[in-house]
Amino acid sequence: MPKVFMYSTAVCPYCINAERLLLSKGVQEIEKIRVDLAPEQRVEMMQKTGRRTVPQIYIGEKHVGGFDDLRALDLAGELDALLNT
């Protein structure tokens, strides 16, 4: 399973939902980068993704996007394949 990491904040409901979905898919570890604790990480996130909102999720080297993007991948049946590469 590829490495999963996510830019997040402590109280973001979309971050919590993204984590729940990933865990339900068998992801055992999610590396979280808390942009609320490290503002310089938010700047890095915006430069890398072109987006300001959290979560911003990476599966391996692929930027998936936010929770809505992650959920759309799941509904399209593509998330399992991405997690099992």
Number of helices: 4
Mean of all residue-level pLDDT scores: 96
Helix percent reads: 40-55%
Q: Any idea how many domains? A: 1
Could you give me the name of the CATH homologous superfamily?
A: Glutaredoxin
Radius of gyration: 12 Å
Structural class: alpha+beta
- Gross geometry: globular
Question: Which CATH top level class fits?
Answer: Alpha Beta
Spatial arrangement of strands, main beta sheet: 2-1-3-4
Describe how the helices and strands are arranged.
Blueprint: E1 4-8, H1 13-24, E2 30-34, H2 39-49, E3 56-59, E4 62-65, H3 67-75, H4 79-83
Parallel strand pairs: 1-2
Antiparallel strand pairs: 1-3, 3-4
Helix pairs in contact: 1-3
Brief summary of the model shown:
The chain is α+β, with helices and mostly antiparallel strands.
Write up what this structure looks like:
By secondary structure, this protein is an alpha+beta fold. It has a single domain (4-83), classed as Glutaredoxin, CATH 3.40.30.10. It is 44% helix and 21% strand. The protein contains four helices and four strands, in the order βαβαββαα. A four-stranded mixed β-sheet has the order 2-1-3-4, with helices on both faces. α1 packs parallel to α3 (67-75). The longest helix is centred in the N-terminal third of the chain and has 12 residues, at 13-24. The radius of gyration is 12 Å and the shape is globular. The termini are close together.
